[in-house]
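QA checklist item 7 of 12: single-chain prediction sanity check.
[x] sequence parsed
[x] length recorded as 601
[x] structure emitted
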Amino acid sequence: MAYRRFGGTLAFSNDGRHVYFVSNISGQFNLWRLPVEGGWPDQLTAFADQTVRLIAVSPADGTIALCADRAGDEFHQLYLLDPERGWPQQLTNEPTVQHFVGPDAWSPDGTTLAYAANARTPTDMEIWLRDVGTGERRPIFGEGRYTIPGAWAPDGTKLLAYDFHHNSDSTIYLVEVDSGDARELTPHEEDAMFFPGPWAADGSGFYLATDAGAEFHGLAFYDLASSSYEWVDGEPEADVEALAGSADRRYLARLVNEGGWSRLAIRDLGATDVPEPDLPRGALSHLTGFQPPPALSPDGSRAAVILSSPRRPPEVWLVETPSGRARALTESRIGGLGEDDLSEVELVTYPTFDGREIPAWLYRADGAEPGPVVLSIHGGPQSQERPVYNPLYQYLVSRGISVLATNIRGSSGYGKSYMRLIERDWGAGDMQDWDHAVRWLKEQDWVDDGRIGVWGGSYGGFAVLTCVTRLPDHWAAAVDIFGPSNLVTFARAVPPTWRRMMKRFVGDPDEDEELLRERSPMTYIESVKAPLLVIQGATDPRVVKGESDQLVEKLRSLGRTVEYQVFEDEGHGFTKRENELKSMRLSAEWLERYLLGDGGD
């Protein structure tokens, strides 16, 4: 754990001389500024309880708009900050309302801020405009929907809007700023994802990412005159996971997910060839789902990206666009942590019940004798285990415990057909994938089949609970971090803006109650044999504390071995370094105790 983490935002200053990022250097995720030449960063916020999540930089005067939440409650409030002097000015103080700003929040003239908020109706995420000079604000689009503002048109009269239906379907609208009139640009019959990107300089259209008619999200250009879009580089073979444009609209950057690794590609829209960035192999990490996008300086001469790899924690990398040369701006490692001390990763696959091959990352411990293994299951579930730095994996390997980190059905990055397999199927095909993972492990001569543990958070926590209740004979130890234990109560308690999506995602708690109870770990709780550590954030809005409370209460009444740790000032994830350290230490000690020791200490 001797390193500093990054948050989910990255941007250049409006003059291109600095890079902004969020890091827990101070022990909490605050906003920092670093010259493009390097050096020690300046701390721009000094929050002790709030976490800076996202920022937007005004193209006019460099003012920063940011959103931050308190103790992980995800009720993000808006702030303005002059990066040269002053303190964050709080714009909103609505403790039960969520507010989001994106990288394109500012109008071209810097007078207006576009943001998303569920301020009028808790279930609706609407797009609002705020006049920065007068403070006047008004909703312009999104009633009855979940919408996020995209980029402003170059003349400032229109705004792209991202209308999110669920994890497999979204669409793009064009909204007239003055009237609020909106036109759907990407109507479609079958489910497809459409993500708006930067505009062309002449306002004739914009770039987007979509998987319509394809397995993967590819780069396309939408032409307003013809109301149509075309692939830029042909039908995609890997997911475009993020887009960014320079302020002068000459350069376009995109990150492409190639088998879990992130590749940065920069295009000169003036048709000049741009060298491939000379970056080390790495991938995006995230903070509670927020992934830092690539960033371009206003003139496109520089790009920045935050990448991690199995043996190196995340760093801010700066790319000189004309030459492709890249260098790390930050050094997040502390305490003498070095790559030679850490384990490399191997990509493996194993067969499952329906003939599919399940990809997984293997971190293998040294040793001549068969040893213990931890099966790690990522959250989401429509997310992906990436080859990034994971301190728990590295610690376990150093202690002789191997780790198999799986990308079971439902994981992203392998095409939309694979990702959709998990929808309305929690606790079915996925459970068989975990069962087959253990079967594969038991066939390996380096595995002690009596010392297999399971660890995961969020959906991964649900996976852990499913494993120990419905596959109880496999496990010697288990760690559940804020996992749903009862799919009915979970689906009823999610944040209001999620409710319209739950039927497609997991199931409707009323219409599908019988199915959800049949798939819930609580239904099989009496079968638990493995000692279980449960970790929960008290302010978690996604998987509320009641999910862990009911689980632990029942296990204790049955006399099972269970330990329960609640973090009163955390939500769905860890924002305070001291809490993250404690959580990691608890997980490591629990797994060591039951996989290496006698289980009695």
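[x] summary fact logged: The two ends are 24 Å apart (CA to CA).
[ ] second reviewer sign-off
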